[in-house]
Specification:
This protein is mainly α. The chain is 63% helix and 3% strand. It is globular and about 70 Å long.
Length: 492
């Protein structure tokens, strides 16, 4: 391995400065944490950050000024909300089923362990970005470590993961529309409508401009799961309970088969698989030094909500959990829950579609003046990539049209690689020649990352096997619909 330490300082030769300008307000020539110089300017505070309205030279976007979109406008609080929304969505709807498979204690332990592992991965993204300002995606990090082959391999996996998650939201949107309208149209039609709505909002160019939608999506999903929890506690009969007498069974510790257990773990990995978005988020923050604060706040909020929703719904519904979970508390409540969740599902889809499109956009126009300028080529490339991205997501959603198995496959095959193994190796690569090498702290952190790297590969191989077996069995048994089917997928 070759590396630079996280404690390294930025090379002064890489800093571009600009003349001081006079102002009645406080002025200072400020250098941010990425080694980018920012022109002296009047100081204002927005979203907890000091705001600079003047020219910025960025290692990814080049010169950012008033002549184009500001790709460095995201404050730490809005960044935290976007982090939460990229995770709270489809994943939380599968967690009650995880507890049903594993039982209370193993299920909670798995959620906490995966949360800890992914939080470390998210922090490593920020550390690596500070040392390598040119990084904007996982593919950029792979290029630094492994060259062009690494960039293309990891870049494709990164892009496919984000697009697949966007596609999963199209599937959930079609379920929502079918539930609300009682299957008033072909399921494929609803998926197309969902893809078009997502594409329209995802085409907004910067994360700063769409960050307010993160609040909308977060409130929407939280309102729907809170309604579900209340309804589950009040209902006398879960929607999937059989006619006549029935008994709700919950277990402290269950005894699942290996395939069932690893699929449950896959869904938890999927629920935390927002790490690909964190590269873009730190890359568009005004002050990346606040990134760690954003991550910690987001992960505490996400994990708390996951545990509450999973445990409460499982307690009241037991083995009669629908997939997605919003359909667990009865037909009328299901319609209400999906109505509340629909904006959140759309926002989740648009964030992932936006991130996937932004990856391709930067790859195509990097080092071109069209990247950060409002030129015709800038717009044609951007909107063309948005349409292409949403089209691929739609195909994925319709090819594997069953919610739980799709989440499991995405989490195992792509989520572990991009959210666990890659970041563990990034830390090892960047710290292999650290001045702190040989110290107790360095040895412990190196050992931890080696262990995480191995755990990630195990989850990837075993999880993909479990997901494929389950999908194959589902198709053989005829218990799921076929690809591109008009059949109702709401379970009504």
């Amino acid at each position: 391995m070759s590396s630079t330490s996280y404690n390294q300082s930025v090379n002064d030769d890489s800093i571009q400065s600009y003349p001081m300008e006079e102002s009645k307000k406080d002025k200072a020539l400020m250098q941010d944490d990425l080694g980018h110089a920012e022109i002296a300017r009047p100081v204002d505070v927005v979203d907890g950050d000091r705001v600079d309205d003047s020219k910025v030279v960025d290692a990814v976007w080049g010169t950012i000024d008033e002549g184009g979109p500001n790709y460095r406008s995201l404050g730490w609080m809005r960044a935290s909300i976007l982090m939460m929304k990229t995770q709270i969505g489809l994943g939380v709807l599968g967690l009650p089923a995880v507890l049903d498979v594993l039982g209370y204690v193993p299920g909670v332990i798995v959620i906490l362990v995966i949360a800890t592992i992914i939080t470390w991965s998210d922090l490593v993204v920020g550390y690596f970005k500070l040392n390598h300002p040119e990084v904007y995606t996982a593919a950029d990090a792979a290029y630094i470590m492994w060259g062009p082959i690494g960039r293309e391999t990891i870049g494709f996996a990164y892009w496919l993961l984000v697009v697949a998650i966007a596609g999963a939201t199209f599937l959930s949107i079609s379920v929502a529309f079918n539930t609300i309208t009682e299957h008033a149209a072909c399921t494929v039609v609803w998926a197309v409508i969902g893809a078009v709505i997502v594409a329209a909002f995802a085409s907004i160019q910067t994360l700063g401009r769409i960050s307010w939608l993160g609040w909308v999506g977060l409130v929407s999903i939280c309102a729907s799961v809170i309604t579900l929890m209340i309804a589950a506690g009040l209902t006398d009969r879960p929607s999937l309970a059989p006619p006549g007498a029935f008994e709700i069974i919950t277990q402290v510790a269950a005894s699942p088969t290996f395939v069932d257990a690893i699929n449950a773990v896959n869904i938890v990995v999927f629920a935390y698989a927002g790490t690909p978005n964190f590269y873009n988020i730190v890359g568009e923050m005004r002050q990346p030094k606040h990134y760690t604060k954003s991550v910690i706040a987001a992960q505490i909020g996400v994990t708390t909500l996951y545990l509450i929703v999973g445990c409460v719904v499982y307690h009241f519904v037991g083995q009669y959990i629908a997939s997605p979970a919003l359909g667990s508390a009865g037909f009328t409540v299901k319609k209400v829950c999906y109505g509340l969740a629909l904006p959140g599902l759309i926002v989740g889809g648009l964030l992932y579609a936006h991130i996937a499109a932004k990856y391709m956009f930067v790859r195509v126009l990097r080092k071109s003046r069209h990247l950060s300028k409002n030129t015709p080529i800038h717009y044609m490339v951007w909107f063309g990539i948005i349409i292409f991205t949403c089209g691929i997501g739609f195909i994925i959603a319709e090819a594997i049209p069953f919610f739980g198995d799709l989440l499991s496959l995405i989490g195992a095959l792509l989520g572990t690689l991009i959210c666990i193994q890659l970041e563990a190796y990034m830390w090892m690569w960047d710290n292999w020649r650290s001045p702190n090498r040989g110290t107790t702290k360095w040895k412990l952190l190196m050992a931890m990352n080696v262990i995480l790297f191995i755990i990630g590969w195990f989850l990837m191989v075993a999880g993909t096997y479990g997901a494929v077996v389950t999908i194959n069995n589902s198709f053989k048994s005829g218990s799921v619909g076929s690809a591109f089917s008009c059949a109702d997928n709401s379970g009504n």
